[in-house]
Each structure stands twice: as C-alpha cells, then as structure tokens.
Design goal:
alpha/beta; Nitrilase/N-carbamoyl-D-aminoacid amidohydrolase; Rossmann fold; Arc Repressor Mutant, subunit A; eight-stranded mixed beta sheet; seven-stranded mixed beta sheet; 22 helices; about 40% helix; about 20% strand; Glutamine-dependent NAD(+) synthetase; glutaminase activity
Length: about 675
C-alpha cells in the first residue's frame, strides 16, 4: 500500500500586495510541513492575486510575480507545492502554475480554458494554452541574474515515481477537461488551483466535478480555492476539497476569517492505480513523453489516518442559503473594511428591511469573526482602529464599528422610528436621529421661488419624494467623513432592476452590499434571523442559534419608502408589483433572456392568483422600467456577487443605456 499525505490551502490574498501574498503562501507551506504533508496545492494566481484586472498588462506585475516566486522557493525544501502567477511568452500573458519541488522549480503548466463568463474576464488578459504543446521557457533568476530554462505549457510531472498533473479552475468545468488526456499518462494526483467565486449552492457543483474527476480518472484530486473579499466585488468562499478513488477524503472550512487554512488527508495511490487498471475508459497512447518532467524525490512513509472532515456544522443546516448569505456578507464586509482601512460602517437606518439587513450583517461580521478566529486575532486584523484595541465584547466593538442614523421627515412614522431605535439598541450601534424636515422645506421654498409657483403632490410627486431621500445623504456622508468610516448603500437587486431608488439618495455610499440580492429573499432572511437564527458556538463542543428578535418590529411592516404623506398609505409593492413576481420576471427576462411574451406566459402558469390583465400590466411595467433605468445601475456603488442573477453592469449583466425599451415586443402582448 502506497500512502501519500496531501493538502490544499485557502489563502486570503490582495491584488498586487506582494509581501502580504508571499507571507500567506509561506505560512501555508510551513503549516503543511507541520502536518507532515508531502504534496500541497495552493490557489490560482496566488502570487499576484486573481483580481489584478488590467494591471495584468503591466510588466511590473509580471516582474514582481517572478521575484516572489524565487523568494518562496527556499521555503519549499522538503515539500512539493504549486503556486499560481501570470507569465509571459512571445508577448502573450498566460495564467500559469509553477510546481516547486524541494526548493527548486520543476516546471510550469499553463491554463487551457479561460473563464470568460459572468464576473470573469480572463480572455481579456490571458491567452489560452494549446493542448499537447509545450516549449522551453527562458527565465532570468532575479537573484543570480542568470537565465534558467524550464518546460512550460501542457506538461505533467513524475516526482519520485508519483505522477502529477493539473486542471486549473475553469479547466475542470468544461466538457473536454484536461484530466481526460492526463489519464493516458497514468497520473496519480491532479491539482486544481482555483479562484472560484462564491454563489449560492456552488459548493455542490465543485464537489461533483472533484468527485467525478477522482473517480473517472482514478486519481487523488486536490482542489484549492481563494478565500475572502479579494478585490472588492467577488467573495471567495475557500472550501478546499480532497477526493481519492471517487470518495471525499476531506473538505475544508468555507467563508473563514483566517488568512490561511490548510486541509490535509492521506490518500492511497495504489488504490487509485488499481481503479485505473479496471477502468473501461478508452486508452490513447501518448505521442511522446517529451512533455513529462521527471524529478527524483524520496517520499516519507505515511500511516493511514481516519477520515476527519474539517467542514463546519452549519454546512448541514436546513437553512443553508440563509447561512451562506450571512457568512458571505459578514466576510465580505470584514475584508472590505480592513483592506480599505476604514474605521467602521455608517448605515442610514430607516426602520425598514434593507437597512436593517445591512446593519445586522455588520454586527454579525463582528460576532462570527470573533467566534472564528478569536478576539485578539480579530482586533489584530483591525490593528489600525485604535478605538477597539482595549475592548472585550462583541457589543463593545459594535458600538465603535457600526454607526446608524434615522432621518425622519413629516412623512415618517412612529413605527419606523421605533423599529430603527430598537434595532440600533439591540446591535449596540452608535445611533443618531437627524430630523431633516426643515431642510426639506427649505428646498421646497427655494424651488418654489425659482418656479414662481407652489409645489404640489398632484403635479410634483416624484420630485417631492426624491428630495427627501436626497437630503438624507449629506448628513450620513458627514458622519462617514467625521469617523473615517465607510457609508453603506442599502438598495437591493429588486429595486435596481426597476430603478426604484433615488440616485444620490438611498443609493449613496461607497459600497452597496445587498445590491446583488433580491428583496423577497431579504425579507425571508430577516424573518429567519428573528425566529431561527444563525448557528454559532458557545465553546468547542456546544452550539446555539443566535437570533435578533427585535427584527419583529421590522418584519411586521409592509416595505415602504415613507416619502408620501401618511394618508397615502404608500407601500413598495403598490408602487411596483409583488416582489416575488418582480423577481420572477427579472429572472426570466434578464438571466434567461426571454421575451416579454414568453415572460407573460410563464407568469400565467406560476401566478394564477392574479388575472391576465394585471399580469400583462406588470410585465409591461417591468420591461419599461428596466430599460429606462440602466443608467442608475451603471452608477451603483460596488456590490457583492452573491448568486448568478447579478445585475451589476461592470461584472455580470451588460445592457445598453439607450435602447428601444422593448416597445415593439410590448405592443404585441
């Protein structure tokens, strides 16, 4: 029986932060060595960071990546590991991985299939490598200034009799994945360095291709992912996966607050080889062995280890989507806070669902962060915020990091004010009330004098609503400036779809954390947080559910902007349409690209409680509002990517600012 101890590491990297990234890489290598690991897989582009965007064109990024590669080398004595970096050949840039063996570079593999859908734009910066091609790459050692030659391209490795091949992230997601060709070489281990962004339920897709790769190719399969909010919008959930002989050998924690986490397992190489010998897969004899890189290496004798999965218990929750959302938002906000060096967050707390959700997520980032990495490590990561360094509890820290403001006008109600006050108290936020009614009235006077007429709801409805929302922005921006804090916008995706937001009002902020999630989900999440709660730990063995029960005062309300006089009984759904129906049209029209007529057919099947005339009216309304409000979506603050229905025009859903507004199609309904 030939046993091999392998590991994968998740790393929380920062684009072009060379020393930070190198420190994490070295830490992962040292942690793996302490576990007596022989083969370690690190994430894709972990040296440079995955999200460098157009800086991948910069010669300096390529030079610094090579420098860090050589500085990491001495730390790989006694271990085999891979590191990802951008590399240039013939004036083309490639997404590459270097395999480092016992302190030396063995060679380089280049990614063959580039991610160019959704939030990924790899074909903009990188060139895909050609199957079964390899070249000799001349590389100048930045330390000795001598030129060194390495095989580069579609290559595999024979390290001390263990054969290692690569599928780099997207390579494993395509039908003609490289693992099929690698199986012809009798590969023992496939490494998959990845930068796979978080989306709901995506971990199950990853598990499937890792398990299937391990089973079909008869290999130990090592999948390593990035972790955290790397560059602003995408959140990487980590979640290392190790499989062998078609079975899970270990799975690492997801959405952790650690910078480095190493997950290991012992795999049986002989068992995989037997599986290959029994495979019915057609065998294609390789044309040559010139793409094989052979390096002598002595592997230590390893004893079997029991299966001890590192997955968190919340992964098995009956409310997995709510748990994922909570932890993704908490980690995304925490990383954005520390990487932008902001001193806290400011939220315009209206007493409604959206601002309540954002405020709760700020509190939960503190609670979950301290639970995950401990109080001292949490404060160490926020070392630049002196105000929290002597504090001991979640509530004390929340009082410094979460600043909220309720800003009523004469159209605001006691209901929303009480809800805002109760929630701010429950979260121990530093809470302010700024009555802006007189400022709104002053604007009325200025405009009335200029127009030489009185403003009235019958003639100036939108203007009178919007001025209230816009007047709220300067005061919360002032609070953000005074505290050097980050103002969070509270608009959601449903509102973004139809432009139901006041530009420079409720859209004001440097970050819009919930702009990627729909209102229907948010309302259900708030009810879950009120009544069920997020799984948290009391100690190493006891868990409990943390609830925020005062959310009842938010959840009992019908969503309302409170911008018209109270006698109008304004609600969001009266202004628009039922939120679940709005989200259904958005999914069909925008994600699935269906025509207005096809959308209406689907609505008639799904929402039979409404008459056909009303469904037609709402369909027309959606398409017109969607088309005329693209300019608003272009101006939203950066938002987190949370599922595959994102509307962010900079990363996911491009639509012309000027268009026909589907008028021909709507006329045919």
């Amino acid at each position: 029986m030939k046993l091999l101890k392998v590991a994968c590491a998740v790393l929380n990297q920062i684009p072009m932060h060379w020393e930070h990234n190198k420190k994490n890489i070295v830490q992962a290598i040292e942690d793996a060595k302490e576990k007596n690991v022989s083969v370690l897989c690190l994430p894709e582009l972990c040296i440079s960071g995955y999200g460098c965007e157009d800086m991948f064109y910069s010669p300096n990024v390529l030079e610094q990546s090579i420098r860090v590669l050589y500085e990491v080398l001495p730390h790989t004595k006694g271990i085999i590991t891979c590191v990802g970096l951008p590399m240039m050949y013939q004036n083309r840039t490639f997404n590459a991985c270097a395999l480092l063996v016992d302190g030396k570079i063995a060679g380089f593999v280049a990614k063959r299939f580039l991610a160019g859908n959704g939030i990924h734009y790899e074909p903009r910066w990188f060139t895909p490598w050609i199957a079964e091609k390899h070249i000799n790459l001349s590389l100048q050692n930045p330390q000795t200034k001598e030129n060194e030659s390495y095989l580069f391209g579609d290559v595999y490795f024979d390290i001390g009799g263990i054969k290692i091949g690569f599928e780099i992230c997207e390579d494993a997601w395509v039908a003609h994945r490289p693992g099929r060709a690698l199986s012809n070489y009798g590969i023992d281990v496939i490494m998959n360095p990845s930068a796979s962004h978080f989306a709901f339920n995506k971990i199950n897709v990853r598990k499937r291709f890792v398990l299937e790769g391990s089973r079909a190719f008869g290999v130990a399969y090592l999948y390593a992912n990035l972790l955290g909010n790397e560059s602003g919008r995408a959140i990487y959930d980590g979640g290392t996966i190790i499989a062998s002989a078609g079975e899970i050998a270990n799975i690492g924690q997801r959405l952790s607050f650690h910078d480095v986490l190493v997950t290991s397992a012992v795999v049986d190489i002989d068992a995989n080889r037997i599986a290959q010998s029994q495979s019915s897969m057609n065998f294609d004899l390789p044309n040559s062995q010139e793409n094989k890189i052979t390096v002598p290496y002595n592997f230590p004798n390893i004893e079997p280890e029991p299966y001890d999965p590192s997955e968190s218990k919340w992964e098995y929750s009956n409310f997995i989507q709510e748990e994922e959302f909570t932890r993704a938002l908490a980690l995304g906000l925490f990383d954005y806070l520390r990487k932008s060096r902001s001193n806290g967050f400011v939220v315009s707390l209206s007493g409604g669902a959206d601002s309540a959700a954002v405020s709760c997520c700020v509190y939960l980032l503190i609670k979950l962060g301290i639970e995950n990495i401990g109080l001292e490590q949490f404060k160490k990561k926020l070392y630049y915020i002196s105000a929290i360094q002597d504090l001991k509890t979640v509530d004390e820290i929340s009082n410094k990091l979460l600043l909220t403001a309720y800003q009523p006008t004469e159209n605001s109600s006691d209901t929303t004010e009480n809800a805002a006050d109760k929630l701010a108290k429950a979260l121990n936020a530093t809470h302010y009330t700024f009555n802006i009614n007189e400022v709104v009235k002053e604007y009325h006077k200025i405009i009335e004098q200029g127009l030489d007429r009185k403003l009235a709801w019958q003639t100036d409805d939108i203007a009178l609503q919007n001025i209230q929302a816009r007047v709220r922005a300067p005061s919360v921006w002032m609070i953000a400036n005074i505290y050097n804090a980050l103002l969070l916008s509270t608009s959601n995706r449903s509102e973004a779809a139809v432009g139901y937001a006041t530009m420079d009002g409720d859209t004001s902020g440097g970050l819009s954390p919930i702009a990627g999630i729909d209102k229907f989900f948010l309302r259900n999440w708030l009810k879950w947080l009120e009544t069920k709660g997020v799984l948290t730990w009391i100690n190493d063995t006891e868990s409990s559910y943390f609830k925020i029960e005062v959310l009842k005062s938010v959840n009992v309300q019908q969503p309302t902007a409170e911008l018209r006089p109270s006698e109008n009984k304004q609600t969001d759904e009266d202004d628009l349409m039922p939120y679940d129906l709005l989200d259904a049209i958005e999914e069909a029209a925008i994600r699935d690209k269906k025509s207005p007529a096809d959308c209406l057919k689907l609505l008639k099947q799904t929402f039979k409680q409404y008459d056909d005339k009303k469904l037609k009216e709402w369909t027309i309304k959606f398409f017109r509002l969607w088309s005329r409000n693209q300019w608003k979506r272009e101006r939203y603050a950066p938002s987190f990517h949370l599922d595959d229905k994102n509307l962010d025009p900079k990363t996911w859903c491009r639509f012309p600012i000027l268009s026909s507004s589907f008028e021909y199609e709507l006329e045919q309904l």
